[in-house]
Amino acid sequence: MQRAALFRGGDAPMAAGDLGELLVPYMPTIRVPKSGDRVFKTECAFSYDSPDSEGGLYVCMNTFLGFGREHIERHYRKTGQCVYLHLKRHLRQKVPGASGGALPKRRNAKLFLDLEISSDLNSDDFEYEDEAKLVIFPDHYEISLPNIEELPALVTIACDALLSAKSPYRKQEPDSWEEELQASKHAKTLVQLDNGVRIPPSGWKCSRCDLRENLWLNLSDGSVLCGKWFFDGSGGNGHAVEHYRDTGYPLAVKLGTITPDGADVYSFDEEEPVLDPHIAKHLAHFGIDMLQMQVTDNGLRDNDIKPRVSEWEVIQEAGVKLKPMYGPGYTGMKNLGNSCYLNAVMQAIFSIPEFQRAYVGNLPRIFDYSPLDPTQDFNTQMAKLGHGLLSGQYSKPPMKSELIEQVMKEEHKPQHNGISPRMFKAFISKGHPEFSSNRQQDAQEFFLHLINLVERNPVGSENPSDVFRFLVEERTQCCQSRKVRYTHRVDYIMQLPVAMEAATNKDELIAYELKRREAEAARRPLPELVRAKIPFSACLQAFSEPSNVEDFWSSALQAKSAGVKTSRFASFPEYLVVQIKKFTFGLDWIPKKLDVSIDMPDFLDITHLRARGLQPGEEELPDIAPPIVIPDDPKDHMMNHFVESLDIDESSVMQLAEMGFPLEACRKAVYYTGNLGAEVAFNWIIAHMEEPDFAEPLVIPAFGEVASSGAAALGAVGLDNQPPEEMVAIIISMGFQRNVAIQALKATNNNLERALEWIFSHPDPEEESDPALDTMDMENNANANILAEPGSEGPRIKDGPGRYELFGFISHMGTSTMSGHYVCHLRKEGRWVIYNDLRVCASERPPKDLGYIYFYHRIPS
C-alpha cells in the first residue's frame, strides 16, 4: 500500500533502486520501437479517444497500440500486458504579461510531436501542456516522466523512442503521399510495340472476356485486360496479370484514372503501384493525350473558366445560414485530404438500421473477440466507426457558461466535434492502388469496394450487405434467329443512364453554348450557366431499352451475329442504390461530367421493371459454348505456363512456415494457388492438411502432362485442376456453396462471369449441398420473400415490392471523379441534414436534382 500511495502522487519520491525493483518483473515485456513498428499514440484502437480526451490515451509498451480509458482494461485482460505509457494533453490559457499581451508559454513542447493542434482555438490565447507517465496495471501505479535518473536505461530508451515515433498514417498526409510511390524501374526503358493500336476514349472491354470494368491498359502493346478481383470492388478475372506472365510486359495503367496530373500505374514485375515519369509519352503512343485538358484552345486554364461555380454553391448550400446539428447520428468526419468520398459513403451506410445493428449493436461482442491487433480487423474498425458516428460522444454542442468557468480556471476542455477516420481509411484501403492514395476517388467504386469487404468479413448470422443485393435478369436475343437466352447476375447498384436527348430546355442550352463560345473567343466572362433539365422518366426509359451486344456469338447460328440485351429486376432489394451515370469521355479523351438537373422523385415505383422470364412463344438459344480460340503458338504458351508454374513465391512460403506448417506443405500450397499470396495459400493448407501426402515434397509434372490437358490447362492453377481460391471465395461471398462454386468454375475453365451464369442455368448440382454453409438471417424484414432458402445454392436475396422512398443522396462537385468534392444529404427525424465532412447542419435547400448516388428504402406493403 505504501508503494501504491507513492506512485499515485505520494509526498515522497521513490529511490532509483525502488523503481528498478518495481519494474524488474515487467522488463521482458517492455520493447523499444524499431524501424517499421507502428506506434499508435494519437488514436485508440477501439474508439476515437486521443491524448486530447478527458481520460487521455494509454499506449502499450509491448504492442504500441493505443487505448482510451474505456478500453484499456479489455486489452490488459486479453494480453496480460501491464506497462502502459499514458499520454495526456492539457489546454490552458496563457498567462498575460505586464503589457497586457499573452506570453508564449509551452510545457513539454516536444513530447507528442504528431498530435494535431485544434484550429478552433486561438493559439495566441492558449497553450498546450503535454503530460506523460508510466502506468502499471492492474493497480494503476504511476511514474511521472521524464524520470531519466531513476528509471532503468531500457525503460527510458523505450519511452523516448515511443514519444518521438512518427504517426503510422504519415503516408496519408497530402504532402508526403506522393513520396511513398516510387518511380518504376521500367519507366525509362519501357519498350512500346509499334503495332498501330489506338485506344478509344470509351467502349473498353477486356480482350479475353466480356468484362467492362476494372480494365487496365498494358503500356507495351496496348492490350486492354481486366484486373484481379482484389484490385477493385467490381471484380475481374486476372487477365492483365496473365498477360504479363505470357509476355513479360510489366506496366499497365488503369483506364478511367487518367488525368492531367497523372494516372494509376501498376508494375506487375515490382508487384506494387508505381509512378511513371514518362506516362504522358507512353499514353500518347496509343493516341491518348492526357495533357490536353490542362489548357483550353483559347489559353485559359479550366480553373480560370470556372463553369461550375454555381454547382459548388448549390450543393453545399452556400449563402444560406445553416443550423449546426449535434448529438447521436450527427457526427462529422474530418477530410484527410481528398477523403470526402469515404466520408459521404460511410455517413449513408451507417444511417441504415441493418448496418447499425450488425456493427454497433454487436459492438461488445466484436470488441471482446477482436484479434490481438484490432487495428487490422475489418469488423472492429467498422464497429468503431459506427459507434463514433452514432453515439453522439464526438458531437457535442459548444459550451457557454461552462466554457467561461473553465477559462477562469486557466483550463479548457476541448470539445470532440467530429472524428478523424485515419485508422479506418488506412485499413480499408490497404493494398488498393487507388483508395490507398491521397487522390480523389469515385464514391461509387468505393461503395462497391466496401460491400466486397463486408461480404468477405461476416459478422454473426446477419450480413448487412444483403439489403443492397438483387438479381438482374438479362435477356439476350439473336436478331437473326430471334431466339433468346435468359441469364441472371448479382448486382448492388442500379446504374441509370442520362437521357440528354430528352432535355426539356434544349433552346436555352443551344443559346448558352453559343454565348459561351463567343465569350471564350473574346476572353470575356462566361455567361451564367444553363443546366440541362432531364426528366427522370426519360432516364428510367433509357435504362429499360434494349442495347446492342458487341461481338455477339449466336449459338443458334454458331457464328457471330447482331444481338440485343435488355435488363430487368429478378428481385427488388430492401435498399435500392441508384447511380446517375454522369461521367464520360469525349472524343479527345478529356473526362467530361454531364452537368444536368434530374427531377429525382421522393417516391419511386419500378414494379414495371420486374423480370418475367421465358415467355410463351419464345425459343431459347441452344446451350452451346463458343469455340475456343487457340493462340498462334500454343506450344510456346503452354511452355510459358509451365515455366511460370515453377516460380514459387518464397516470401509467401516463409510466412506460412513461420506459422508452424511443414515447409514442403507450404511450398505446395503456394504452388497450387498460383502464387496468389500467403492468405490464399493458407486456405489451401486448411483444406488439405488432413491428406496423407500433405507434408510430402512437391513433385513438378513433366511438360507433356501439363500440355496433355489441352485448353483446360490454360485456366488451371493446380494439377488437380482446382479453381483459384480467390475466385471460389468471391462466389461463396455471394451466398453460394463451396462445392457449387468449384463445380461452376471447373465447368467454365475458371471464367468468373461464365461460372455465375452456369450456376443459374444448373439449379441441381451434382453434389449434395451443406445447409450449414447457407444459413442466413430470416428476420430482417417480415414483409420480404427470401428467394434463396437455407440449404439452396442461390445467392442470399431478399425480394419484396418495387416501391421506394428516398432517404439520402451523395452529390459530387467538379469536372471528374478524380477531382472535386463529395457531400452527403440524409433525411433524419423528418428533415434533411447535410454532411459536409466535419460540418453537419440542418439542410434548407437539399439539391435533390444534382445528386450522383441516391439511396431509396423499400416502402412496406
Automatic annotation (TrEMBL):
It is found in: Cytoplasm. The keyword Ribosomal protein does not apply. GO terms for cellular component: cytoplasm. Residues 182-290 form the UBP-type domain. The keyword Iron does not apply. Zn(2+) binds at residues 206, 209, 226, 239. It is an enzyme of class 3 (hydrolase). It catalyses: Thiol-dependent hydrolysis of ester, thioester, amide, peptide and isopeptide bonds formed by the C-terminal Gly of ubiquitin (a 76-residue protein attached to proteins as an intracellular targeting signal). Residues 331-859 form the USP domain. InterPro entries: Papain-like_cys_pep_sf (IPR038765), Peptidase_C19_UCH (IPR001394), Ub_carboxyl-term_hydrolase (IPR050185), UBA (IPR015940), UBA-like_sf (IPR009060), Ubiquitinyl_hydrolase (IPR016652), UBP13_Znf-UBP_var (IPR041432), USP (IPR028889). Its EC number is 3.4.19.12. Pfam families: UBA (PF00627), UCH (PF00443), zf-UBP (PF02148), zf-UBP_var (PF17807). GO terms for biological process: autophagy; protein deubiquitination; proteolysis. It comes from the Eukaryota. Keywords: Autophagy, Cytoplasm, Hydrolase, Isopeptide bond, Metal-binding, Phosphoprotein, Protease, Repeat, Thiol protease, Ubl conjugation, Ubl conjugation pathway, Zinc, Zinc-finger. Residues 647-688, 722-762 form the UBA domain. One of its GO terms (molecular function) is cysteine-type deubiquitinase activity. The active site is at 340 (nucleophile), 821 (proton acceptor). Belongs to the peptidase C19 family. Interacts with UFD1. Interacts (via UBA domains) with SIAH2 (when ubiquitinated). Interacts with BAG6; the interaction is direct and may mediate UBL4A deubiquitination. Interacts (via UBA 2 domain) with AMFR; the interaction is direct. Interacts with UBL4A; may be indirect via BAG6. Interacts with NEDD4. This is Ubiquitin carboxyl-terminal hydrolase. It comes from Junco hyemalis.
